[in-house]
Amino acid sequence: MSRTSKAYIAGIYEHPTRKAVDQTIPQLHAESAIGALADAGLTMADVDGYFCAGDAPGLGGISMAEYMGLDLKYTDSTETGGSSYVIHVGHAVNAIAMGKCSVALITLAGRPRAEGVATLGARDYGSVLPELGFEAPYGPVVTNQYGMAAMRHMHQYGTTSEQLAWIKVAASHHAQHNELALLQKVVTVEDVVNSPMISDPLHRLDCCVITDGGGALVIVSPEIAKTLGDRCVKILGHGEHIKHLNAGQVDITYTGAVRSGPIAFEEANLTPGDMDYVSIYDSFTITVLETLEDLGFCEKGEGGKFVSDGNLISGVGKLPFNTDGGGLCNNHPTNRGGITKVIEAARQLRGEAHPKVQVPDCTLALAHGTGGSIATRMGSSTVIMGRNDA
Amino acid sequence: MTASTETKERNYPAPSVNLETEAYWAAANEGKLLMKKCNGCGKTHFFPRAICPHCQSNDTAWYEASGKGVIYSYSVMRRGDTPYAIAYVTVDEGITMMTNIVDCDYDALAVGQAVEVTFRQSDGDQAIPVFRPV
Ligand SMILES: [Zn+2]
Fold this sequence. Notes:
The complex is a heterodimer.
Chain A: E1 8-14, H1 25-40, E2 49-51, H2 62-68, E3 74-76, H3 84-97, E4 103-110, H4 142-157, H5 161-175, H6 189-193, E5 197-199, E6 202-203, E7 213-220, H7 222-228, E8 233-243, H8 257-268, E9 277-280, H9 285-295, H10 303-307, H11 326-330, H12 338-350, E10 364-372, E11 378-386
Parallel strand pairs in A: 2-3, 2-4, 9-10
Antiparallel strand pairs in A: 1-7, 1-8, 4-7, 5-6, 8-11, 10-11
Chain B: H1 22-29, E1 34-38, E2 44-45, E3 60-64, E4 68-77, E5 84-91, E6 96-101, E7 114-121, E8 127-133
């Protein structure tokens, strides 16, 4: 079987730092870019398309293009928070298919820990935001917004804290093998539900880590991929969607994955049952649970049952997920985890994940990003990927 | 304006007010909760806009809401100096709005609980609608 792919992931790089006291943000972007290009067997001189989001300093990609010495004919600075980079993969495929560029570089980097940026405060995106006056006075921060999503899901479907905890447990089982992971200790369901309550019903261990760092991806045309060898990974489908509060008709029990998933699966001509491995954006345990339902890995409302009893643990359950430890344990660079989702899926398809978590004969995989907030408005993106011979 | 004497409450940041929303905030200062309805399609939307998000008509009009609703979801923030309850309340007019639940036992809140509007002063003397159990 050889599936058609309009573009390939040729290079991946996850910056090893988790606290970048000695590096600037542009430097972290450039180090990530150099790492991914070296992984691909390419150099900065080969790049003709550059993709970045709001974490890149400057107007879109302009300043970073100058800093890194890029000579570009295509750029895209789509900003949908943590899902930006998964959207960038889809947009890079489109640009390459249209002949607009042939080597696309995507970078992410930031240093919230080194800069001591608290995430507890309300985000300030400026007073011109239309919704701002109707939300900011009420103290919406990340944790209590996701808390509301979890609370409603529990009410509507009977989901329990113990079921959500299994998601963290699975991530921790994987993170124990990742020497770079911020949290490498295996935790139990009891550990999660007994950790301090942050915002009902989410406990501390339902939340992702805060880390500095970054990552980069190199997407290339099929012609270039042919010259780079079989570590190149096929991109088979992509979907994206913006979900919002819909004029006050609010339903926070589902995510934008209900639309991005089917679009991606249709383009790839595949189904959830075909996936050997999935990377699911995991800002919180509830993010994973809703997303798995929305992507069709189980019926809506059955996510709690689906994730229980180790079903997401590689080698144990039916759907190995986030084998790097994910955002819950490994890395959530600058509070934006999308790029690490694509990176670990590519490692799995290359057979380069840690041997303890490598999925045998991993042929087809999915990476999903969520940006913004599942309790208000979000950008969602799904990418379906295949091994070089898939 | 009833300030709870039982429970210490957090300071409420002042809302940003603009040309499209100043009537909403002026009414809040008089203890009224306004909604915006479209004369083109008849539907209420939230947050209030000059252009109807359902049919794109610019013929939208304010009306006073009943102030009654039920909790759609909530979460009590346990970290920080002062716990507070953020919530979505579905009001009788059919839309769901972000708010805080006040004058309540945070451990006794429930999805589906009946609530009614009340008001709190935010920083800068602007009143904001919040809800309390009926
Ligand atoms: Zn209308």
